[in-house]
Amino acid sequence: MKNSAVAFDEITRDDLDRADDQSYIDNYEKGLSEKLIRLISGEKKEPQWVLDIRLKAFAEFQKKATPTWGPDLSKLDLSQIRFFATADGNKNQKSWDDVPDDIKRTFERLKIPEAERAVLAGVGAQYDSETVYHNLKDEWTDQGVIFEDFDYAIANHPELVKKYFTKCIPINDHKFAALHYAIFSGGTFLYVPKGIKISQPLQAYFRMNAKNGGQFEHTLIVVEEDASVEYIEGCSAPKFGENSLHAGGVEVFVADGARARYSSVENWSQDTYNLNTKRAIVQNNARMEWIGGNLGSGTTMLYPATILAGNRSRADHLGVAFANAGQNQDTGAKITIVGKDCRASVVSKSLSKGGGISTYRGLLDIKASADRAMVAVECDALMLDDLGSVSDTIPHIICANDTAQVNHEASAGKISDEVLLYFQSRGIDEETAKGMIVNGFLDEIVKTLPLEYAGELNRLIELEMEGSVG
C-alpha cells in the first residue's frame, strides 16, 4: 500500500526470515525443569506468589497429556527447546536510542519505530524472552492508563495484576496453558481506567531470534467501565530448520459498557509451533472484537475465546489463515454465552496452496441462562492451486436455551479457470488476477484493521502468494 503512512510494502522475506548474529547469556539450559523455573523467577526478583503460580503450573504441565485431537505435535521435542533466552546487555528501555543497535535494527527493518511515530499511542517490543522497549505517550499516562512490560507490572502494580492474573485462563486449562504459566516471561500489562477512550492503537511486537527458541509472553488487558482500546499484536521469527515454540497467553477483561479490540498479525516462521491461548471475559453492554491473521508458522493451534458473561454483551471474531506448503493452520473461535440478549458473530476466511492444511475449529456454548442469544458463523475457504490442499470446517455447537438463534454457513471453492480467463482477456496476467481475487476474498477482514496494518497483512499475504502460479 504505497499511500500508507508506514512503508510495510517495503518488508521483504529476508527481513522476516533473517536471524541476528546475537550473543546470549548462556546459563539457561534447554528443556523445562523446576531448577530453570526457580532460576528465572529468582533473577526476575519475583514475589513468592508468582513463583507459587509457576510451580503449580509446572506440576499441571507434567500431569497433562499432549493434545491429539488436532494437528500432529509428535515431532515437537520440548527437551530441545530453549525456554528462556536473553541477549547480552538487553534491558527494557523507554527510548529507541537506548536499545542496543543490533536489536534496534531488527525492529527498524520490521517498521515498528516508524509505526509508533505515525499512528500509535504506545509500543512494546520484545526480543526473545525479554522486553527491550516499552513506551506510552504522555497524554495517556496523564489520564491513568498503564501500558507496561508484564514483568514491570508485577513489581510495580502487584495488587492490580494479582486481581486478574490467571483468572481468565486457568492454570490447568490445558497442557500448553500450564506450560505457559510455568515459564512465562515478558509481555504486556494494559490497564485503561473508567471512561477513558484511547483514540490511537497500542502495539506490542514479539520477535523470536534464538535457535530452538521459545517465547511465552503474557498479555493482560483490563478495560474498565465505559472505556475503550485497540491493541495490535505482531510476531515474527527467523528460519533455522529446527523447531521453535510460541505458547503465549492473553487475558482480556472488558467491564460494563467497555469495548476492546485485539488485532494480531502472526507471522512466525515455518519452524515454529504456534500454540497460543487467548481469552476474554465480557460484562454487561460490553463488546470484544478479535481480528486475526495467521501466516507463517508450520503448525498453529489458536482459538481466541470469548465468555459473554454480562447481559447484552457482544463478541465479534474475524480471522484469516493462510496455509502454504508444509503448514497446518488449525484456527477458529470459542464463544460461551451466559448473559441474556447477547450477540456474537464469527467470520473465518482460509487460504490454502501447495498442499497446505487449513481448518476452522469452533465451539459455541449457549448456556441455559442465555435467553435470546443470537449467533452467526460464516466460514469460507479458497484453494489457490491443485496440489492437494485441504480445508475443513469443524463446528461444535452446544445450545441449552431454546430461545437462541444460531446460523452457521460454510463454503469452499477454487479460483475458477473461467474467472482467470476473464481477467486475462482484459490484459491482466494470472498472478495479478489471483492477487486481486484474494484481496476481494479477504476484504471483510482487512478493512477492519487500521490502514497501516491492513497494509502489513496485505504485504505478508503477497509474500505467501509468491510463486502461486504454476
Q: Which structural category fits the helices and strands?
A: alpha/beta
**Biggest sheet features:** 13 strands, mixed
Computed Rg: 21 Å
Terminal-residue CA separation: 26 Å
Residue share in helix: 10-25%
Unreliable residue stretches: none
Report the sheet-strand fraction.
25-35%
Helical run tally? 12
Overall structural domain count: 1
Query: What do the pLDDT scores average to?
Result: 89
Quantity of strands, as a count: 23
The quaternary state of the protein chains shown equals single chain
The shape is globular
Question: What report would you give on this structure?
Answer:
With 470 residues, the chain is α/β, with parallel strands linked by helices. The strands form two sheets. Strands 3, 4, 6, 7, 9, 10, 12, 13, 15, 16, 18, 20 and 22 form a 13-stranded mixed β-sheet that branches. A ten-stranded mixed β-sheet has the order 2-1-5-8-11-14-17-19-21-23. It has helices spanning 13-17, 34-43, 48-63, 101-109, 112-119, 138-141, 150-156, 158-164, 175-183, 417-425, 430-446, 451-465, and strands at 122-127, 130-136, 146-149, 187-192, 202-207, 214-215, 218-223, 228-236, 244-246, 249-254, 259-267, 272-274, 277-282, 287-295, 299-302, 305-308, 314-323, 328-337, 343-352, 357-366, 374-383, 390-399, 405-414. Helix 3 (48-63) packs antiparallel against helix 9. The chain is 25% helix and 34% strand. The chain has twelve helices and 23 strands. It starts with 12 loop residues before the first helix and ends in a 5-residue tail after the last helix. The protein has one domain.
